[in-house]
């Protein structure tokens, strides 16, 4: 009987690990269209007129930002490291410049995403606020 329990435990452990991995993947379902709710740069709030009307689209491993006129002002690919708390993000720019690397942190809470990052070559933020050469945005997923 004891051998049966040990065998069952060994067989079920991988399933439990897969279930946890699935929860982690679900928690990071970022695909969607977002409006920028607020922003901070170099420790100061971004003026409302600077972020109003800007939209961020996340699809797969790509982030694209457009302005009020739907003109692309930013694009990058990204990777998220879920082993860090908060999750670490590495973004590689595609536009307007290419191949510049920015590092930061990202957090998702339902339909809201907080993204804070440093300009290329500078230290990434460790909290969801900024210091010199850092940006932070709160994004709200829009309903279709």
Sequence-ordered SSE layout with sheet pairings:
Layout: H1 2-27, E1 32-41, E2 44-45, H2 48-51, E3 55-59, E4 62-66, E5 72-81, E6 87-95, E7 101-109, E8 112-118, E9 134-141
Antiparallel strand pairs: 1-2, 1-3, 1-9, 3-4, 4-5, 5-6, 6-7, 7-8, 8-9
Mean pLDDT: 84
Strand order of the largest sheet: 1-3-4-5-6-7-8-9
The coarse overall form would be globular
Tell me the CATH topology of the largest domain: Lipocalin
What is the level 1 CATH name of the largest domain?
Mainly Beta
As a whole number of angstroms, the C-alpha radius of gyration is 19 Å
Describe this structure in words.
It is a single chain. The protein is an alpha+beta fold and 144 residues long. It folds into two domains: 1-30; 31-141, Lipocalin. Helix content is 21%, strand content 45%. It has helices spanning 2-27, 48-51, and strands at residues 32-41, 44-45, 55-59, 62-66, 72-81, 87-95, 101-109, 112-118, 134-141. An eight-stranded antiparallel beta barrel has the order 1-3-4-5-6-7-8-9. The longest helix is centred in the first third of the chain and has 26 residues, at 2-27. It is globular and about 30 Å long. Residues 1-27 have low confidence and may be disordered.
In short:
The protein is α+β, with helices and mostly antiparallel strands and 144 residues long.
Q: What features would you highlight for this structure?
A:
single chain, globular, 2 domains, 144 residues, Lipocalin, disordered N terminus, alpha+beta
């Amino acid at each position: 009987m004891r051998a049966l329990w040990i065998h069952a435990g060994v067989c079920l452990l991988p399933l439990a690990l897969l279930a946890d991995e699935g929860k982690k993947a679900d928690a990071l379902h970022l695909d969607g269209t977002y409006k920028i709710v607020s922003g901070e740069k170099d420790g100061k709030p971004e003026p409302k007129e600077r972020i109003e009307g800007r939209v961020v689209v996340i699809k797969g491993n790509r982030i694209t930002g457009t302005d009020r006129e739907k003109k692309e002002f930013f694009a990058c690919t990204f990777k998220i490291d879920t082993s860090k708390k908060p999750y670490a993000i590495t973004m590689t720019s595609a536009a307007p410049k290419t191949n510049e690397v920015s590092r930061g942190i990202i957090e998702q809470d339902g339909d809201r995403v907080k993204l804070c990052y440093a300009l290329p070559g500078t230290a990434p933020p460790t909290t969801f606020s900024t210091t010199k050469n850092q940006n932070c945005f709160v994004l709200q997923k829009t309903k279709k």
